[in-house]
Amino acid sequence: MVQYTQARFDASFAALSDATRRGVLEQLGRADASITDLAEKFRMTLTGIKKHVGVLEQAGLVTTQKVGRVRTCKLGPRRLDEEAAWIERYQQLWGARFDELDQVVEELKRKEKIDGRKK
Amino acid sequence: MDARSESEPSAMKNLTTVERKSEREIVVTRTFNAPARLVFEAWTKPELFQRWWVPKSMGMSLLSCEMDVRVGGRYRFEFAHGDSQMAFFGTYKEVTPNSRLVWTNDESDGGALSTVTFEERGGKTLLVYHELYPSKEALDANAGMENAMAETFAQLDELLVTLGASVGRS
Q1: Which tens digit of pLDDT belongs to each residue from B31-55?
Q2: How big is the CA angle at B116 (ends B112 and B122), to the nearest 5 degrees?
Q3: Boundaries of domain holding A26
């Protein structure tokens, strides 16, 4: 049985919404790399690449470890198999639908109260 | 894990949970802070239904929405998604006011039988939406509206599967 929360989906989706970050993940899928390696590879400043790695780290997609003066990045423990991705897609659709249904229902509730008062 | 949100304060947004119950079944649950008759009304009146069935985040627009909510009555929804159009249609099999609806999804061979129940508890409604597919393959292929979102998420899926595979190897 699989259940996934909206929050978890949102964090990883936000992390993956950026082309550089997707590139970083692809790169780390091939081999671990230091922040300096990644900055060179993606032609960014150290600060810039650190920011991206930070977002990926928050989402659990990347872990980093500092050894001496070098911070090494590798893929994180977070992984999704196909079924999980499918369920999350489903969760995304129904979550969005029901949040909007909530608004419709709230409106009906308010309307009923007002109508009730008129009587 | 039971992620149902009945015990949460009403100011918070209630959680939608999705469970794959079996190879052929999927269940979505959500609590609404309103009596069942209002949730049922929002589900069965076309002018209300079309306001929530196609969430804004899907990037689709509803072209038409016909619903004849009675046993044997039919429904048909037509959508535009970019340049393409699609239609979803079927028949209502069971209609129990304020409590239960069952309908078919006939736009494809592997379409599910959908059941939604509305259970009122202390002024709140527990909504359980259930889909039963003819086979595991049909569920996996999921020929419903969910595929419309697949385009947006295909890249993400691909990447995640690649990542999963490489993490698995290490």
Answers
A1: 999 999 999 999 999 999 988 988 7
A2: 160
A3: 6-75
pLDDT over 70 percentage in chain B: 75
Q: Is A64 helix (H, G, I), strand (E, B) or coil?
A: strand
Count of domains in chain A? Answer: 2
A 10 A CB-CB count for B94 gives 11
Pair (A28, A44) in one structural domain:
yes
Looking at the domain assignment, is residue A58 inside a domain? Answer: yes
pLDDT digits (tens, 9 = 90+) for A56-71: 988 888 889 998 889 9
Tens-digit pLDDT profile for residues A8-66: 566 677 787 788 998 898 888 888 899 999 999 999 999 999 999 999 988 888 889 99
User: What's the rounded Cα separation, in Å, for the pair B18 and B25?
Assistant: 11
Cβ distance A109 to B34 less than 8 Å, yes or no, reads: yes
CA distance A45 to A36: 9
- What is the C-alpha separation between A46 and A9, in angstroms, rounded? 28
Q: What is the CATH architecture of B17-169?
A: 2-Layer Sandwich (3.30)
Interface of A with B (CB under 8 A): 1-6, 13, 16, 22, 25-26, 29-30, 61, 75, 77, 79-83, 85-87, 89-106, 108-109, 112
Q: Give residue for tokens 């002024």.
A: B123
